Amino acid sequence: MTASAPPPLLAFVASDRPEAQVARSRLAERYDAVPEDRADVIVALGGDGFMLETLHANLKRPIPVFGMNRGSVGFLMNDYDEEGLIERISGADPTVIHPLQMDAWTESGQVQSGLAINEVSLLRQTRQSAKLRISVDGKVRLEELSCDGCLVATPAGSTAYNLSAHGPIVPMDARILALTPISAFRPRRWRGALLPHQARVCFEVLEADKRPVSATADSFEVRRVTRVEVRERRDVALTMLFDAGRSFEERVLAEQFTG
User: What 3-state DSSP class applies to 145?
Assistant: First the structure.
Protein backbone atom coordinates (compact mmCIF):
# COMPACT_ATOMS: atom_id res chain seq x y z
CA MET A 1 0.00 0.00 0.00
CA THR A 2 1.48 3.35 -1.11
CA ALA A 3 1.44 6.26 1.31
CA SER A 4 -0.25 9.37 -0.06
CA ALA A 5 1.92 12.40 -0.77
CA PRO A 6 1.90 15.11 1.90
CA PRO A 7 -0.14 18.23 1.09
CA PRO A 8 1.81 21.06 -0.54
CA LEU A 9 3.16 23.83 1.67
CA LEU A 10 1.52 27.13 0.68
CA ALA A 11 2.68 30.74 0.82
CA PHE A 12 0.17 33.53 0.21
CA VAL A 13 0.90 36.88 -1.43
CA ALA A 14 -1.58 39.62 -2.27
CA SER A 15 -1.89 42.86 -4.19
CA ASP A 16 -2.60 46.14 -2.39
CA ARG A 17 -6.35 45.89 -3.07
CA PRO A 18 -8.27 45.63 0.24
CA GLU A 19 -10.17 42.51 -0.85
CA ALA A 20 -6.88 40.81 -1.73
CA GLN A 21 -5.35 41.68 1.64
CA VAL A 22 -8.39 40.37 3.51
CA ALA A 23 -8.30 37.14 1.51
CA ARG A 24 -4.61 36.69 2.26
CA SER A 25 -5.16 36.99 6.01
CA ARG A 26 -8.06 34.53 6.00
CA LEU A 27 -6.35 31.94 3.81
CA ALA A 28 -2.97 32.18 5.54
CA GLU A 29 -4.59 31.35 8.87
CA ARG A 30 -6.81 28.62 7.49
CA TYR A 31 -4.10 26.78 5.55
CA ASP A 32 -1.11 27.27 7.86
CA ALA A 33 0.91 29.50 5.55
CA VAL A 34 4.69 29.17 5.36
CA PRO A 35 7.29 31.74 4.15
CA GLU A 36 7.82 31.89 0.40
CA ASP A 37 11.29 30.32 0.62
CA ARG A 38 9.77 27.19 2.21
CA ALA A 39 6.68 26.91 0.03
CA ASP A 40 5.90 24.29 -2.59
CA VAL A 41 3.32 26.59 -4.20
CA ILE A 42 2.69 30.33 -4.01
CA VAL A 43 -0.94 31.43 -3.99
CA ALA A 44 -1.25 34.89 -5.58
CA LEU A 45 -4.32 36.97 -4.75
CA GLY A 46 -5.07 39.87 -7.08
CA GLY A 47 -5.46 40.46 -10.80
CA ASP A 48 -3.46 39.61 -13.89
CA GLY A 49 -0.93 42.36 -13.23
CA PHE A 50 -0.21 40.95 -9.79
CA MET A 51 0.22 37.46 -11.24
CA LEU A 52 2.93 38.84 -13.52
CA GLU A 53 4.55 40.63 -10.56
CA THR A 54 4.58 37.36 -8.60
CA LEU A 55 6.16 35.40 -11.44
CA HIS A 56 8.82 38.10 -11.91
CA ALA A 57 9.53 38.16 -8.16
CA ASN A 58 10.28 34.42 -8.21
CA LEU A 59 12.50 34.20 -11.29
CA LYS A 60 15.46 33.02 -9.20
CA ARG A 61 13.36 30.34 -7.50
CA PRO A 62 10.67 29.51 -10.05
CA ILE A 63 8.12 27.58 -8.00
CA PRO A 64 4.53 27.06 -9.23
CA VAL A 65 2.05 29.91 -8.74
CA PHE A 66 -1.69 29.35 -8.28
CA GLY A 67 -3.57 32.60 -8.75
CA MET A 68 -7.02 33.47 -7.41
CA ASN A 69 -8.85 36.50 -8.71
CA ARG A 70 -9.15 39.38 -6.30
CA GLY A 71 -8.66 41.95 -9.07
CA SER A 72 -10.56 42.91 -12.20
CA VAL A 73 -9.96 40.89 -15.40
CA GLY A 74 -8.39 37.75 -13.97
CA PHE A 75 -7.63 35.94 -17.23
CA LEU A 76 -4.49 34.47 -15.64
CA MET A 77 -6.28 33.70 -12.38
CA ASN A 78 -8.55 30.99 -11.01
CA ASP A 79 -11.89 31.77 -9.38
CA TYR A 80 -11.68 32.79 -5.74
CA ASP A 81 -12.94 30.18 -3.31
CA GLU A 82 -11.67 29.49 0.18
CA GLU A 83 -12.96 25.90 0.21
CA GLY A 84 -10.89 22.89 -0.85
CA LEU A 85 -7.79 24.84 -1.81
CA ILE A 86 -5.36 21.97 -1.14
CA GLU A 87 -7.40 19.63 -3.34
CA ARG A 88 -7.65 22.24 -6.13
CA ILE A 89 -3.90 22.82 -6.15
CA SER A 90 -3.06 19.11 -5.97
CA GLY A 91 -5.22 18.43 -9.02
CA ALA A 92 -4.35 21.59 -10.96
CA ASP A 93 -3.08 21.66 -14.56
CA PRO A 94 0.37 23.27 -14.95
CA THR A 95 1.21 25.73 -17.73
CA VAL A 96 4.91 26.39 -18.38
CA ILE A 97 5.91 29.80 -19.76
CA HIS A 98 9.23 30.80 -21.29
CA PRO A 99 9.75 34.59 -21.11
CA LEU A 100 11.31 36.90 -23.65
CA GLN A 101 14.69 38.55 -23.15
CA MET A 102 14.82 42.25 -24.08
CA ASP A 103 18.17 43.95 -24.64
CA ALA A 104 17.73 47.68 -25.25
CA TRP A 105 20.44 50.12 -26.34
CA THR A 106 19.91 53.77 -25.36
CA GLU A 107 21.15 56.97 -27.01
CA SER A 108 23.99 57.09 -24.48
CA GLY A 109 25.19 53.65 -25.58
CA GLN A 110 24.07 51.83 -22.43
CA VAL A 111 22.42 48.41 -22.65
CA GLN A 112 19.55 47.58 -20.32
CA SER A 113 17.94 44.15 -20.18
CA GLY A 114 14.70 42.72 -18.86
CA LEU A 115 12.46 39.67 -19.07
CA ALA A 116 8.90 39.75 -20.39
CA ILE A 117 6.28 37.13 -19.63
CA ASN A 118 3.64 38.81 -21.82
CA GLU A 119 5.37 40.99 -24.39
CA VAL A 120 8.17 43.34 -25.33
CA SER A 121 6.72 46.51 -26.81
CA LEU A 122 8.18 49.61 -28.44
CA LEU A 123 6.15 52.81 -28.23
CA ARG A 124 6.54 56.35 -29.55
CA GLN A 125 7.28 58.90 -26.82
CA THR A 126 6.00 62.03 -28.57
CA ARG A 127 3.20 63.11 -30.89
CA GLN A 128 5.28 62.00 -33.90
CA SER A 129 5.06 58.45 -35.15
CA ALA A 130 7.93 56.06 -34.56
CA LYS A 131 9.97 54.75 -37.47
CA LEU A 132 11.36 51.25 -37.05
CA ARG A 133 13.47 48.90 -39.14
CA ILE A 134 12.69 45.26 -38.32
CA SER A 135 15.11 42.36 -38.79
CA VAL A 136 14.54 38.68 -38.03
CA ASP A 137 17.56 36.42 -37.52
CA GLY A 138 19.85 39.04 -39.02
CA LYS A 139 17.82 39.64 -42.18
CA VAL A 140 15.93 42.90 -42.68
CA ARG A 141 12.28 42.03 -43.18
CA LEU A 142 10.76 45.50 -43.04
CA GLU A 143 12.93 48.44 -44.05
CA GLU A 144 10.72 51.08 -42.45
CA LEU A 145 7.57 50.82 -40.35
CA SER A 146 5.88 54.10 -39.45
CA CYS A 147 3.65 53.42 -36.45
CA ASP A 148 2.73 54.13 -32.85
CA GLY A 149 4.82 51.11 -31.95
CA CYS A 150 5.37 47.38 -32.35
CA LEU A 151 5.48 44.38 -30.02
CA VAL A 152 6.62 40.79 -29.74
CA ALA A 153 4.27 38.62 -27.66
CA THR A 154 4.62 35.18 -26.12
CA PRO A 155 1.70 32.76 -26.47
CA ALA A 156 0.77 33.60 -22.87
CA GLY A 157 0.79 37.30 -23.71
CA SER A 158 -1.01 36.96 -27.02
CA THR A 159 -4.39 37.52 -25.34
CA ALA A 160 -3.21 40.72 -23.61
CA TYR A 161 -1.86 43.89 -25.27
CA ASN A 162 -1.20 41.91 -28.46
CA LEU A 163 -4.90 41.10 -28.84
CA SER A 164 -5.88 44.72 -28.16
CA ALA A 165 -3.51 45.71 -30.99
CA HIS A 166 -5.39 43.26 -33.27
CA GLY A 167 -2.67 40.64 -33.12
CA PRO A 168 -3.39 36.90 -33.33
CA ILE A 169 -4.12 34.64 -30.38
CA VAL A 170 -1.38 32.00 -30.22
CA PRO A 171 -2.01 28.54 -28.68
CA MET A 172 0.28 27.80 -25.76
CA ASP A 173 1.91 24.76 -27.38
CA ALA A 174 2.44 26.38 -30.79
CA ARG A 175 6.07 27.47 -30.17
CA ILE A 176 5.32 30.69 -32.02
CA LEU A 177 5.83 34.37 -31.23
CA ALA A 178 3.51 37.11 -32.48
CA LEU A 179 5.09 40.19 -34.07
CA THR A 180 2.34 42.84 -34.11
CA PRO A 181 2.36 46.51 -35.19
CA ILE A 182 0.56 49.12 -33.09
CA SER A 183 -1.43 51.54 -35.27
CA ALA A 184 0.69 51.05 -38.39
CA PHE A 185 0.67 54.07 -40.73
CA ARG A 186 3.12 52.88 -43.41
CA PRO A 187 2.84 50.21 -44.71
CA ARG A 188 -0.78 50.61 -43.69
CA ARG A 189 -1.89 47.11 -44.58
CA TRP A 190 0.90 45.28 -42.72
CA ARG A 191 -0.70 43.20 -39.96
CA GLY A 192 2.41 41.64 -38.45
CA ALA A 193 3.88 38.15 -38.60
CA LEU A 194 4.02 34.83 -36.79
CA LEU A 195 7.59 33.80 -36.01
CA PRO A 196 9.17 30.54 -34.83
CA HIS A 197 9.87 30.70 -31.11
CA GLN A 198 13.65 30.60 -31.62
CA ALA A 199 13.62 33.69 -33.87
CA ARG A 200 15.68 36.72 -32.85
CA VAL A 201 13.96 40.00 -33.59
CA CYS A 202 15.84 43.29 -33.87
CA PHE A 203 14.23 46.72 -33.95
CA GLU A 204 16.31 49.68 -35.10
CA VAL A 205 14.85 53.09 -34.27
CA LEU A 206 15.14 55.43 -37.25
CA GLU A 207 15.46 59.18 -36.59
CA ALA A 208 15.76 58.38 -32.88
CA ASP A 209 16.67 61.94 -31.92
CA LYS A 210 13.59 63.37 -33.65
CA ARG A 211 11.20 60.48 -32.98
CA PRO A 212 12.12 59.03 -29.55
CA VAL A 213 10.91 55.54 -28.66
CA SER A 214 10.64 53.66 -25.38
CA ALA A 215 10.89 49.88 -24.94
CA THR A 216 9.04 47.90 -22.30
CA ALA A 217 9.41 44.32 -21.08
CA ASP A 218 6.13 43.85 -19.20
CA SER A 219 6.43 46.71 -16.65
CA PHE A 220 10.18 47.40 -17.05
CA GLU A 221 10.66 50.45 -19.29
CA VAL A 222 13.72 51.88 -21.03
CA ARG A 223 13.40 55.38 -22.54
CA ARG A 224 14.96 56.79 -25.71
CA VAL A 225 16.16 53.52 -27.18
CA THR A 226 18.01 53.22 -30.49
CA ARG A 227 18.04 49.45 -30.86
CA VAL A 228 16.13 46.60 -29.21
CA GLU A 229 16.77 42.87 -29.57
CA VAL A 230 14.22 40.26 -28.48
CA ARG A 231 14.62 36.51 -28.07
CA GLU A 232 12.98 33.72 -26.12
CA ARG A 233 14.70 32.47 -22.96
CA ARG A 234 14.09 28.75 -23.22
CA ASP A 235 16.34 28.20 -20.21
CA VAL A 236 13.87 30.01 -17.94
CA ALA A 237 10.66 28.11 -17.13
CA LEU A 238 7.84 29.61 -15.06
CA THR A 239 4.83 27.55 -13.99
CA MET A 240 1.25 28.71 -13.46
CA LEU A 241 -1.36 26.35 -12.04
CA PHE A 242 -4.99 26.29 -13.20
CA ASP A 243 -8.01 24.42 -11.91
CA ALA A 244 -8.53 20.99 -13.49
CA GLY A 245 -10.71 21.31 -16.58
CA ARG A 246 -10.00 25.05 -16.85
CA SER A 247 -6.43 24.96 -18.12
CA PHE A 248 -4.79 27.99 -19.65
CA GLU A 249 -4.76 26.22 -23.01
CA GLU A 250 -8.55 25.88 -22.80
CA ARG A 251 -8.93 29.56 -21.88
CA VAL A 252 -6.82 30.65 -24.85
CA LEU A 253 -8.85 28.43 -27.18
CA ALA A 254 -12.17 29.70 -25.80
CA GLU A 255 -11.01 33.31 -26.15
CA GLN A 256 -10.89 32.83 -29.93
CA PHE A 257 -14.64 32.19 -29.97
CA THR A 258 -15.56 35.16 -27.78
CA GLY A 259 -17.37 38.03 -29.44
Answer: strand
Total Cβ atoms within 10 A of residue 53: 17
Cα→Cα distances 247→130, 139, 195, Å: 38, 37, 24
Q: What is the mean pLDDT of residues 130-135?
A: 98
Catalytic residue among 37, 48, 209, 235: 48
Percent of the chain as helix, strand, coil, to the nearest 5 = 20, 40, 40
Answer for the pair 250, 93: CB distance below 8 angstroms, yes or no.
no
Report the alpha-carbon distance of residue 208 to residue 110 in Å, rounded.
15
pLDDT at 2: 46
Cα–Cα distance list, 138 to 77, 183, 246 (Å): 38, 25, 40
The predicted model scores a pTM of 0.90
Known catalytic residue: 209?
no
User: Is residue 79 classed exposed, middle or buried when 0-12, 13-18 and 19+ CB atoms within 10 A define those classes?
Assistant: exposed
Cβ pair 239, 96 in contact under 8 A: yes
Query: How far is Cα 159 from Cα 137, in angstroms, rounded to an integer?
Result: 25
The answer to whether 145 and 206 are in contact (CB under 8 A) is: no
Give the C-alpha separation, 193 to 90, whole Å. 38
Nearest to 190 by CA among 120, 123, 142, 256: 142
127: left (phi over 0), alpha (psi -120 to 50) or beta: alpha
Say which residues have a Cβ less than 8 Å from residue 92's Cβ, sequence separation at least 6.
66, 241, 242, 243, 244
